[in-house]
Amino acid sequence: MTSDMEEEELDKLNEELLEALRHSANESDRGFVIFSAAQIDLSLRKILEAFLVKNKLVEDLFDDAFAPLSSLSGKTKMAFVEPA
Fold first, then answer.
1. Which helix (H) or strand (E) holds 1?
2. What's the pLDDT score for residue 1?
3. Mean local confidence (pLDDT), 43-69
4. Are 75 and 69 spatial neighbours (Cβ–Cβ below 8 Å)?
5. Quick one: average pLDDT of 29-33?
6. CA angle 70–34–67, rounded 5-degree value
7. Is 81 helix (H, G, I), strand (E, B) or coil?
8. What pLDDT band is residue 5 in, cutting at 50, 70 and 90?
9. Which of 75, 17, 20 is nearest to 51 (CA)?
10. How far apart are CA 69 and CA 76, in angstroms?
11. Closest-CA residue to 50 (of 38, 35, 62, 39)
12. How far apart are CA 52 and CA 1, in angstroms?
């Protein structure tokens, strides 16, 4: 069962996603694909950050120039890592 805080965060994320989808409705097919990929990248980052400790080293995993989680590919691979 989720707490009230988790439900509020999920509601906020859902609202952000719906707003992004509304914004992308007027895009060309190509623009929609690029916009959608960016939204997936952002959402995946938020999901991964929710499972990681909040500190500067973790931020560096996402934000440094050659950081392992700076690309959608890196985030996708991280999402499918099975725990030991």
1. none
2. 44
3. 89
4. yes
5. 86
6. 5
7. coil
8. low
9. 75
10. 9
11. 62
12. 20
